[in-house]
Every structure is written in C-alpha cells, then in structure tokens.
Amino acid sequence: MRLHQIPVSLLLPPSPSSSFSPRPPLYRCCLAALSSNHRTASHRRLSTDSHAPRPVIGQDSVEVLGGSYPRDDFTNVTSKILAKVGRNLHNQSHHPLWLIKERIKAHFYRSYMGRWGNPLFSVHDNLSPVVSVEQNFDSLLIPPDHASRKKGDNYYLNRNTMLRAHTSAHQRELVRSGLDAFLLAGDVYRRDQIDSSHYPVFHQMEGVRLFSNHELFSKVQNGEELSLFERGGRRTPHKQEAHTLEAVKLVEFDLKQTLTALIAHLFGEDLEVRWVDCYFPFTHPSFEMEVRFHGDWMEVLGCGVMEQELLNSAGAGNKAGWAFGLGLERLAMVLFGIPDIRLFWSEDERFLRQFRVSDIQQPVCFQPLSKYPPLHNDISFWLPEREDGGESFTENDFYELVRSIGGDLVEKVSLVDDFTNPKTRRRSQCYRIIYRHMERTLTQQEVRLVHEQIERSAESELGVEGRY
C-alpha cells in the first residue's frame, strides 16, 4: 500500500465507505521535519493570511508566499495549483471546512484543560504549506525509495522544496518548540485521480499528545515503580523496542478513549466504532478508526503510538505519545451531505450561505444546487515508448494536464479502455472526461474547445500519439 493511501492522519487512507474515498487521513501521510535550509526555515512560519504577492512560475524560479525558489528538473507545480495557496478555506469563517475544524477545536477545548484552567491543546492552523522535502519525508522516517516521494504524486517547487503532502510536515518543529499537546490544521497538496471525492488540494487536521513518566503513571497504583522505557527491549506487533508494554497500553488506551469521544461529539453518541491494525512508518502500533455510518463501515482517521525515534530527534526523548490525523473534506462531505469535493472551492452564495449558522454545533444538511447536466468526451492515444522498452507515461501526469487545462469544469476522469496491440505490443488507453459546471449549464461548444486543447497538449507535453 502506498504511504499516501495508508490509513492514519497522514495516516490518510482512502475511503469512508466502499464508494467514498477521499484521501487517507493526515497521519497516514504525515511527515514532519525541521529544515536546516535558511530560506525554508525563515519561510516556514510565514502566515498564509498575509498579503503576499501572487504566486508566479517564472522561467528560472517559482515565487510563492514571499519566497523565491529556483526551478530544476523536479519542478512540477502548476499555476492553477499555486493559485490555491493562501486561500485557507479552513480559516474562512462559516465555510464548511471551518465548521468542522471549529467543532473539533471546541471539543478539545471543553474536554481537556491544563493545570491552570487553560485549554491543554494549542491550535496551529496558519503554518505555510511550503516545506522542505526533509520536513515532508525524512523527519517522518519515510525511506528514500518510498513510493510516496514520487514526483508523480507530489507538487515540487524544486528538488529540495515542495508543497506539503500532509500537515505532519510540521510535527517535529512543534514538538521541538516544547509543545506536549497540539492540534494542527492546514491545506495539503497531492497529485491524484479526478473524481467527486479527490482534489489536488485538500485539508487535514491532526493531534499530538505527549506524556512524561509522571503524567502517564500518576493515576496508576504503584505507578512510581513503572517506566516509559526499557533497555534491551524488542519490537513486537504490540510495542516498540524502547517502550515498556505497560506504557504502550496506557498511551494506546488514552488515544482510543480521546478519539472515541471526538467522533461521538461529531457523529452522535450512538455510534459503533472499531479499530483496525495497520502500518505507518511514524507510529507503532498503528490503527485506523472505522465507524458504522448509514449501514457501512467508514474509515475516518489514522492514529498510533509515535515512533520514539521521532521524539528523540525533536528533543523529547524523555516522553512518549500518540498522534492522529483526519481529512476535513471527508468529514464535511459525510456530515453535511456534500456530494462533490469541488463545491468546497465554490464562491456561489447559494452554497456558502447554507453554512452561516449562529451556533457551530447547529446541524447542517446541504441542499443541492440546481443539478446541471454533464457532458462527456473521450480521448484515446498510443502511449509513448522508451528506447529501453519501458513507458514514460503515468496516469497522474495525464490527470494533472487535464486539471491544468479544464480546471473545475472537469468532474471526473476515468480509464475506460486499456489495449495492447498483440503484434506491435504498443499500448493505447482511452479516458472518458466528464465535464460539469457547478453553477451553470455548459455548452458542447465550450467543452469541445477545452477538450481539443487537452488533446493537443497531451501530444506535445506527454508524447502520446492521438487516436482520433
């Protein structure tokens, strides 16, 4: 299973149900690390709410959020994607993503208080999405050859800098700053397929809680005799080599209790929950949380006991803790009944006004806008051949080309035929592109102009040979 599809906060796997599959939770794909690069470090804390110049992709550099990043052979971010940077839907008052974020914040603020009566969990929802590759992958123990690093799955500004693929890219720096309990929310970016539940920009929220030896065992009988760590331990399916079994079980209990309370707050008390064992490079043991919703089991988040190596590298080697991650779009689509992920980017007042409630806990049931008819066109082509006999074409490259040209006019792209000529061994594919505007009726004439541009660009940029 690819990392960006494994269940957890980045642990972000697909599918709340068999038919719904927004990204994996934020923990599943979570990756965090503090870059030593001065430009990235200084830019890391730049508020994305500031009035920074418009992003620009120049011949030699990419300008975004006040930073300039030299282009190289890894640069693949597009102007349409950069135009989303700084929109911060999760911070727009009464936007559906904001509502979900605020409900989660309110629950943690009300349920978990610090020693002096202040909220235990701090909230960080305005960190720059421009991060180093080291932050996004290395700090989370993602191997150098892991599939999740592929250029085809991420948006790179250059070989060393990218748009974060998960909010966990900031996890280590927040722990290093001395925080023991925090929530983190933000926009994340991934190249992916095109349908009603996938979009190249989406939003995640994750939580981290660390415990000292005293905090974890203070309520346990003879707790002063217990320890977080053991020497000479071994890794098993239930624990890391550094942890005692008693510590892991208490951390796991606190994690599951915390998340069960959160989901009950969001979905209602009468909810059936189950935990599924899974694997993530940055937690062990790791779990996916599933709930029975409308008769189907739906995965809602990923979580686990944090790898001690991560805490050691962040200067918190005397503590143990848990982390979780979830997708805000996934929850909003389910809880509010929003059928298409593109709607979150709509500025149509008929959509936005439905979420202007006086109380953030007030139930909201999305009322569909007029359903405009879809138009579909097919595109067929021979895939390019390499001299070594391999193929240089990837589906994500084609999806990205369609997004760059068709934008939000495109509702879905699906592969409808994959054929290999038995004599020449040449391979061809046929994709069906469904066009539908969210706010008006499209004409076949305007769709045809877009479709023809996609056909021409596929030949010139991807090296395919059209079959028209």
UniProtKB/TrEMBL annotation:
GO terms for molecular function: ATP binding; phenylalanine-tRNA ligase activity; tRNA binding. Gene3D superfamilies: Bira Bifunctional Protein, Domain 2, Ferrodoxin-fold anticodon-binding domain. GO terms for cellular component: mitochondrial matrix. InterPro entries: aa-tRNA-synth_II (IPR006195), aa-tRNA-synth_II/BPL/LPL (IPR045864), Fdx_antiC-bd (IPR005121), Fdx_antiC-bd_sf (IPR036690), Phe-tRNA-synth_IIc_mito (IPR004530), Phenylalanyl-tRNA_Synthase (IPR002319). CDD domains: PheRS_alpha_core. PANTHER family: PHENYLALANINE--TRNA LIGASE, MITOCHONDRIAL (PTHR11538:SF41), PHENYLALANYL-TRNA SYNTHETASE (PTHR11538). This is Phenylalanine--tRNA ligase, mitochondrial.
